[in-house]
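not sure who needs this but someone in the group chat was asking about histidine kinase from Flaviaesturariibacter amylovorans so here u go. i didnt clean anything up, its just raw.
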Amino acid sequence: MVALDTAPAPFLFTGNEFGDPICVLHKDGRLCFVNEAAATLFGGTAGSLQDQSFFDLLPEADRPAAHVAFTSLVSGQPQASFLSGVLKRGRLPVVYDWLLRRDTARGLLVGTARLLPHMMPAELLRAKQEAEGRIRHLFDLIESIADGFFAMDREWRVTYFNATAERLTGKPREEIIGCRFWDVYPMAIGSLAWERYHWVLEHNEPVSFEFFSPHFQRWFETNAYPSSDGLSIFFRDITARKQVEDERRLLSLVAEETVNAVIITDAGGRIVWVNKAFTGLTGYGLDEAAGQKPGDLLQGPETSPKTVEYIRRQVRQQQPFHCELLNYSRSGRAYWTELRGQPIFDTDGKLVQYFSIQTDISERVDLQQMIINQHIDIQKELNEAVLRTQERERTEVGKELHDNVNQVLTAAKLHVESIRYQPEQAAHYAGKGTVLIQQAIDEIRFLSKQLVTPPLQELGLRAGIEELLDQYRQVKHYEIELHWSICEDKLLKEVKLVLYRIIQEQVNNIVKYAQATRLHIALEYDGTHLSLGVSDNGVGFELKGHYHGIGLANIRSRAAAYDGRLSIESSPGKGCSLRILFPKETIALPEYR
């Protein structure tokens, strides 16, 4: 038994004045007072039962009914009752009828148990049990639904708040049940929900509406129903659905105004909508296209079967696709299109539509083909130039061997043979022969260096060019100047050989035809282009007659292989200036482009 000085203020009595069990509970269901009859009923003492859960002391089968009664009491009902099930007193079954009342001033609950007569009519007991079962089922149903649910009385006090409502709002029911709704959510005063809830109470009619909550930053669909006690509210989060609707609305607006052709197909792949740009591109209006499959409408004899199979595979797997495809218009005109397709799903992840965009790329494809053809032509020209160069070099080598080296060796042979006839002058003829043979050796070495690919990887481009120029300085007395302001480490190795061969070709032309005494060679880089210049002070020439010579054709072909732009300035008596500009994108290593 609880001492008088420790009993709750409203219950300053021993509790034994009454024969029925009496309990006082906190709002969380913990006991704060029991009399001796209740302690005996629960099989403990007043001290041992304090702060224990009231529900844990009841038979397990009857706890759901007790929870329902307790929840309705906390939710605002003045009182609630339930049967405590069957306990054993000796050999006779007993049933207690518990009545719970709310002490609003103290924030406590008072429960009293009345022993039902042993001979209570079975029909009455069964009726009470069935009623409690229906109430339990109703509360279980409300707690299990996917929608949030809460109830308010006509004073706007929340009397019930289910588990889904807790999850959607993030607020435990203990913090809102018994409170005025507008006190908990003052930011909602004057909102659409505020207006509609008042309208339901005033007109006693249900209402359905959607609204955006700035507080939760979410969209809700709400159904409010009037009742004799107040309002019952069902609500659900529809933010994801609204986002999809907004995206579709924006997509529709963009699709209608875009210059690209747009097709929307249903889940079965049949056209349900096309925009004006589609009609302009294909010649098919919506009335003709609706219900057809895009492939049946647009594909033709030259359409790639592999690309078609790729599209079908992606659609079967409900995946996006992106490809280039040859289609045909209503008039039979073939056109190239860049096709992008995107599946659209509903909020449950089910495919509902495919959104496809077609961009006419016929001009781009034609341009790409033209560029390919140009590259093929350049490659043919380059191959022809290589063959011409090889033939010319063979001819030049043959002429040099015949006209120069052969003559020198013939003279050397005569000097050697003269020793047989004039032995007394053997030393003189031997010396002359040796000089001539050395001259032949030098000529052959010069020819060899002209023909053999220089070891630029080992020497470096600048060193290779310097060595080349030294040969001409030794054979002919030229004043040759090399101006260098590039970093050769950034160049492709193939480009280094092209630059070397162009310089070699042009210097050979100058030596043979220009009658020059000074040569100037410059390699410069301005950040976007590499410039190669070769100029001389020779006799010059008329461009019209010499511009298509074999030597210049070779240079032009080598330069074109790397998008080089060739320009020549020359006139009789004023020398010649050759300049080639190479874009860095074609000559530099990838990391330096």
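also Residues 261 and 277 are 5 Å apart (CA to CA). if thats useful
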